[in-house]
Write a structure and sequence with these properties.
The chain is an all-beta fold and 96 residues long. The model has no long low-confidence stretch (mean pLDDT 94). The chain contains no helices and ten strands. The strands form three sheets. It has a four-stranded parallel sheet, with no helix packed on it. A three-stranded parallel sheet has the order 2-5-8, with no helix packed on it. Strands 3-6-9 form a three-stranded parallel sheet, with no helix packed on it. It has one domain (2-91).
């Protein structure tokens, strides 16, 4: 899943399990938030890197990446992030 190019105020997931996404088997990032003026997006209540049983891996290389000057984005409560090949959450390249 990609949130790019000045995207704002998107919600991946939601306030509880009924809104949960299973995010896995991506060759790079499960969720990537990137770019100048890409801001105020939220990732909440998802299983990132797991199958629907919540225990078996469904790996991405990286669970969530926030990069390239993306600002004020949140990896919020309720996410279960694991089973990924590298990082669970990676924030770099002037992300705020």
């Amino acid at each position: 899943m990609r949130i790019l190019n000045k995207a704002k105020y998107n919600l991946v997931g939601g306030p509880g399990p009924a809104y949960r996404n299973l995010i896995g088997q991506n060759s790079r990032d499960g969720v990537r938030i990137a770019g100048f003026e890409t801001m105020s997006n939220t990732v909440s209540s998802n299983w990132i890197g797991f199958r629907s049983d919540g225990a078996t891996g469904l790996s991405n290389e990286i669970g969530v990446t926030i990069t390239n000057s993306a600002a004020y984005n949140r990896v919020a409560v309720g996410n279960v992030i694991g089973g990924n090949e590298s990082h669970g959450v990676q924030i770099y390249a002037a992300a705020r």
